[in-house]
Amino acid sequence: MVRYIAYRSLMALFLVWVVVTIVFLLLHLIPGDPAELLLSQGSIAADPAAVAALRTKMGLNEPLWQQYLSHLAGVLTGDLGASFRDGAPVVGQIAQRLPRTLEVILTAAIIATTLGVPLGTFAAIRAGGKWDSAISLLSSAALSTPVFVVGSVVILIFAQQLRILPAGGFVAISVDPVQHLKLLMLPAGTVALGLWAVITRMSRATVLEVLQRDHVRTARAKGLSHRQILRRHVVRNALIPVLTVLGLEMGTLIGGTVLVEFVFNWPGLSGYLVSAVDARDYPEVVGIVMTISILFVFLNLLVDVVNAALDPRIALARS
Questions:
Q1: Which of 24, 91, 141, 264 is the most buried (most CB within 10 A)?
Q2: Neighbours of 178 (CB within 10 A)
Q3: Around Cβ 112, how many Cβ atoms within 10 Å?
Q4: CA-to-CA dists, residue 319 to 9, 305, 308, 316, angstroms
Q5: What is the longest distance spanned by two Cα atoms in the chain?
Q6: Which Pfam families match (predicted)?
Q7: Complete domains list, the chain, with CATH
Q8: Residue 183: what pLDDT?
Q9: How far is 4 from 58, CA to CA, in rounded Å?
Q10: Residue 292 to residues 147, 194, 269, 302, Cα–Cα distance (Å)
Q11: Tens-digit pLDDT profile for residues 213-240
């Protein structure tokens, strides 16, 4: 198990380096000069002398390899540089916004998992019945509905008609915990709906598959009750692919909640990434993408370790 964790950790570090390198190079291939964009005012072109001075200050005149080495050195020391737009440290901006995005995603994951695994298991046990059809229909509808549509509908229902939750905004939990939780519910619920659909469908499929295995038939032949079979032999094995999908989905959502943050005016990391890309702010973009990739890889590493704990054969096969 220790060898397996060490191997997966080394692979995770390698993947993070590859992603950061690719993003750094791709950003420098995008047309447009960040210095010129920052100094331009509408249709008025920037002064070439001012642009040249700003490029020197930003270090954009240095060779690409030197910029890359400087960036890697900064990453290793925890310094992601300063924003081209306002000179603010990128680490500070990420540290401020990342917990807000993680809060939405983790709350959504708790809601989706709490509802999805039992409902998926229930649908699998009654496969082909009316409850199975109803749950499958609901999950398909939730999966195919765009997130901005879900967000608009929940605002219309819960904020404008029922008036039980605010439509959007952000208040720090240290300022007003109750208002913070109220503002969190709608964006987290919007994200949870699609995640719930994925987990429900995956739970149903994996439980159905496990129910057909030989060891489950043997457990039935020994006279174990239906509840004992589910608890001891079915759910444990069915959780492995469900956890894998959950880890992938959560990693994707870290940088993919742009529309949710926009609809609910939630100042998270995804919206920050969009504005940084639009401004060609290299330090911000590379810092954000690096943070997202590290979290994505860490989540998948955590899922691999949990899966290996649930089924030791995984660690034996890959170590």
A1: 264
A2: 9
A3: 25
A4: 12, 12, 11, 6
A5: 85
A6: BPD_transp_1 (PF00528), BPD_transp_1_N (PF19300)
A7: 2-76 (no CATH), 94-278 (1.10.3720.10)
A8: 93
A9: 43
A10: 20, 20, 9, 15
A11: 777 777 777 676 667 777 666 777 777 7
